[in-house]
Write a structure and sequence with these properties.
The chain is of the alpha+beta class. The chain has a single domain, classed as Ubiquitin-like (UB roll) (Roll). The protein is 23% helix and 29% strand. Strands 1-3-2 form a three-stranded mixed beta sheet, with no helix packed on it. The longest helix is centred in the C-terminal third of the chain and has 11 residues. It is elongated, with a radius of gyration of 13 Å.
Length: 70
Amino acid sequence: MKAELKDISAQGWLCETCKAPLEVLPADILYMGSSFTVDLPRCPKCGYTFIPPELAEGKMREVEQILEDK
C-alpha cells in the first residue's frame, strides 16, 4: 500500500549523523503487522528517516487509532 501525503518537505533539514541534506524518499512503515510505503524526509547516505511532528501527531495518529480498533 502506498500512502500519499501532501506538503511533506525535506527543505532545510540535515541528518544529525551524516550532515547530509534530507531528501523526500520512500520509507517502509511497519505497525501492528501492517506495512505502508510513505514518502518521507530521509538521509540518502545512512537512511535515517525523519517523521515531522505534525505528521506523527496528525495523520499517523489517525492510522494508529484505526489499526488498533480492528
